[in-house]
Amino acid sequence: MIFLTTVMVDLPMVVAVVAGLGLLVALAGVGIMWWLRTRSIGVMLAVVVVVAVTATLVGVVAIIMQMIIEGPVKDTVLSVVAVGGLVGLGVAFVLARRVVGESRRLVAAVGLVPFAAPRGLPAELQTIANTLEEAYARERALEGARRELVAWVSHDLRTPLAGMRAMAEALEDGVVSDPETVARYHAQIKLEVERLSSMVDDLFELSRIHAGALRLSRARIGLADLVADTVAGAEPLARAKGVRLTAEAVASVPVEADTGALGRALGNLVINAIRHTPSDRTVALRAGVDDGGMACLSVSDCCGGIPEEDLTRVFEVAFRGEAARTPTAGGGAGLGLAIAQGIVEAHDGVIGVVNDGPGCRFEIRLPLVG
Ligand SMILES: Nc1ncnc2c1ncn2[C@@H]1O[C@H](COP(=O)(O)OP(=O)(O)OP(=O)(O)O)[C@@H](O)[C@H]1O
Ligand SMILES: [Mg+2]
User: Fold this and answer.
1) Relative to the alpha carbon of 149, which ligand is closest?
2) Nearest Cα to 257, choosing from 299, 287, 290, 292?
3) Beta bridge partners of 191
């Protein structure tokens, strides 16, 4: 049965009464939400529904009283609002259960090692889970690299130290006494000490880079000058190895850089190139501007190419390309390229390597200044 009652409706008055009462309920709701701000999302959802239903109910009751509606119409309207409110509460309850359940699933997954982001979460929780997964993976990789570095470096320090100790004891006990061997032992000890000090310097530099404590005093410099200085510095090493060193620069190629630091990065590339190039072959340095308008420094050698699987790994700390870490004459600790990368990135640049022709080409790209 449908009850129809004709009443005179003063619309602006109705809107004003409903809006005013709605505002009061909303303010009370915001206050309750603030009070419960650290509680479960489920509780907050319940508050939202209760506020919405109360605002509607209060408005409807006020209007009914204003219009002096009585009897079945009043009961019908109130029932409709009450049923609507109950339906809203039910949906909110289901939603809250899901949100709370999914957050608990995420919290439980975070406790597992290694953390793998659960799938099928609501969008925001899924974003948090994916970001956490990436952060944990990065942290694990860094921790692994750190552990590897400590193991490798202590191995690299222990072997020459054992050799030096044996030589020093032999000299002290007079086990070797012929002048030729004594001189050779002294020279060998001096060489090892120099190698170890340079390794310690490199480790110190690397720890400063990783700690973000690398202080650059940047000034406008020309890459052509940097190339000329690096070639002059590496010339004795190249000559001793019988490697030709060539340099080529188009104009001066201005960049904002710390000459000392960038020179060290380029020097590390050149020393590597000379070390891996057979005698009578060439190592070529170039300074120029690439197609993308970046300043570009490159070092090409004749090393015979780096294995594809190692191309992305050469910049890792302590990577040396061979599985066994037996210290070889002139071999390093695998820190040079990691230092070069740290320095280049501190200059807002990028460093990379490609196999090219008879060897490989290391490239440093830096923003060009006008
Ligand atoms: N020009 C190159 N040609 C071929 N292989 C290279 C070249 N430069 C680097 N590599 C490979 O990358 C590894 C890492 O180089 P990196 O300069 O970091 O360490 P290192 O030269 O072994 O030691 P360090 O620089 O600390 O004295 C090298 O051991 C080598 O295997
Ligand atoms: Mg090196």
Assistant:
1) 1
2) 287
3) none
270 Cβ below 6 A of ligand 1: no
Protein residue closest via CA to atom 12 of ligand 1? 314
User: Ligand 1, atom 25: nearest CA belongs to which residue?
Assistant: 336
- DSSP sequence for 100-118: HHHHHHHHHHHTSSS--PP
- Calpha distance 276→360 (Å, rounded): 10
As given in the structure block, the two tokens for residue 32 are 């309750």
The number of helix segments (H) and strand segments (E) in the chain equals: 8, 7
Q: Sheet harboring 244-249: ordered strands across?
A: 244-249, 282-289, 295-300, 359-366, 350-356
User: Before 278, cis peptide (omega within 30)?
Assistant: no
* Residue 360 beta carbon below 6 angstroms from any ligand 1 atom: yes
CA distances 294 to 207, 247, 254, 262, Å, are 29, 19, 10, 16
Give the model confidence (pLDDT) of 244-297 as tens digits.
999 998 888 999 999 999 999 999 999 999 999 999 999 999 999 999 999 999
Give the model's confidence band at 330: pLDDT under 50 very low, under 70 low, under 90 confident, else very high: low
Rg over CA atoms, the chain: 37
pLDDT tens digits along 55-91: 888 888 877 777 766 677 778 878 888 888 888 888 8
Report how far residue 271's alpha carbon sits from residue 238's, in angstroms, rounded to the nearest whole number: 9
Compute the distance between CA of residue 131 and CA of residue 272 in angstroms, rounded to an integer. 38
In order, the DSSP letters of 253-312 are -EEEE-HHHHHHHHHHHHHHHHHHS-TT-EEEEEEEE-TTS-EEEEEE--S----GGGTT
Write b or e for each residue in 76-99: b if 16 or more Cβ atoms lie within 10 A of its Cβ, otherwise e: eeeeebeeebeebbeebeeebeeb
Per-residue pLDDT of 348-366, as tens digits, reads 999 999 999 999 999 999 9
